[in-house]
Amino acid sequence: MTPLSRREALRLAVSAGVTARFGRLDRFFTQGRPVPRASQLAWQQDELAIFIHFGVNTFTNREWGDGTESPAIFNPTRLDAGQWARTARAAGFRAMVLTAKHHDGFCLWPTKTTRHSVANSPFRGGRGDVVREFVDACRAENLKVGLYCSPWDRNAPAYGDSPRYNDLFCDQLSELLTQYGPIHEVWFDGANGEGPNGRRQEYDWPRFWAHVRGLQPDAVMFSDAGPDIRWIGNERGVAGDTNWSTVDPSVVPIPGMSGDAVMKMLQDGDPRGSVWRPGETDVSIRPGWFHHPAEDARVKSVDELVELYFTSVGRNSKLLLNVPPTREGLLHAVDVARLTGMRGRLDAMFSSEATAGAMASWQAGTGGGTLEVTLPQPATVSVLEAREDITRGQVVSRHGFEGLGSAGWIALGRGTTIGYRRLHRVPPVEVRALRLTIEDALAAPVGVSLRAWRG
């Protein structure tokens, strides 16, 4: 077969995402670049997930417990995981992640590994299992299930005796990953402080990851170092304006590392990275991660939540929004109202697509090309979207939008990476055509699309 020229490859590989589709895409491959596994792709396509921080800290009004808390304090009298799941589903979220164990070591399931668990609490008469109720509620609402099990355990006497504790931690993972059916996301962090014996623990991350993979091969694992999903580098809800889904794994080989190079890799990724490891943007709807009554008046506004959507999902990331239950075991009414408001605002914003039924054409250019879309009729647009077909990799490193109005073509916005989804909000402008120009790319762009909404 004669190799394709760059112009021909671009012509074949790029499609409009509206009505114009170019054939023969089967002739164009990934050019050796990393691509997502099916589980990573499904994870990103969900776009929105709820984080549930709940445990003894909810009852002590603290963010980090010290492991000395009595299980007797844990007694959510109205716990309703169904309310959590119904709220998430109504707000357009597609997954939830529960803190099955936080740094205090208190387990929300009746584990055999410690007495520091719900089995020794008054909850449900000592027969409660928050993880079970959470999992069942998620499945009832068709939400994917995620579990966070903190490796740092401030209660476990074995913590700091590294081989012994690593065995215990794997036993806890075994319980969580064999007793509750399919788990979509297993969430870790790199927190590593002193244990009750005053010693630091050396985590066996390769063993932990292999253990999860063996028990739940379809799950994605999150941590600073992946291995499937990486932290975006902050808890403000802001992915990098440049955000590659590829990384160099040698820069962040294990969770908990620090330094400028580490933070840059987490925030921006690496265009030459050898593995596919997209970023997850985690942030709390409140100042804290656990519920504190004093913060009931400090819940993020609908405007702030919508902005988080654009700085996470709209920057090739996924939003993991923490919404902590109260001591009763319910999501607070204010939080629920803000989530409902967020959903309503986003639905309104994306309800009227200006590019529906548009005609498109592609013109190859040096280092990229231009996708031009002629609208069925002039429209005032305020939200612009570009996408790449990430099943074939991520290659676009610089792009720009233009609109054709009464005074000719005008610049509407510019950016760097695109990836799964790149959103731009612009001042409302009436146009009869739009252009997406790929100004620079690592290889021929594949499946690039352009859409716009009236907003």
Tertiary shape: globular
SSE arrangement, N to C: HHEHHEHEHEHEEEHEEHEHEEEEEE
Calculate Rg over CA atoms. Answer: 24 Å
Q: DSSP helix count?
A: 10
Tell me about the biggest sheet? 8 strands, parallel, barrel
User: Class by helix and strand content?
Assistant: alpha/beta
What's the structural blueprint in terms of helices and strands?
Layout: H1 6-13, H2 38-46, E1 48-52, H3 56-60, H4 81-90, E2 95-101, H5 130-140, E3 144-149, H6 162-178, E4 185-187, H7 205-215, E5 220-223, E6 229-231, E7 246-247, H8 260-268, E8 275-276, E9 279-284, H9 302-312, E10 318-322, H10 333-349, E11 359-365, E12 368-387, E13 396-405, E14 408-415, E15 422-441, E16 449-453
Parallel strand pairs: 1-2, 1-10, 2-3, 3-4, 4-5, 5-6, 6-9, 9-10
Antiparallel strand pairs: 7-8, 11-12, 12-15, 12-16, 13-14, 13-15
Helix pairs in contact: 4-5, 6-7, 9-10
Commentary on this structure:
With 455 residues, the chain is of the alpha/beta class. The chain has two domains: 6-30 and 352-453, Jelly Rolls; 38-349, Alpha-Beta Barrel (TIM Barrel), CATH 3.20.20. Helices cover 24% and strands 25% of the residues. The two termini are 47 Å apart. Residues 1-29 have low confidence and may be disordered.
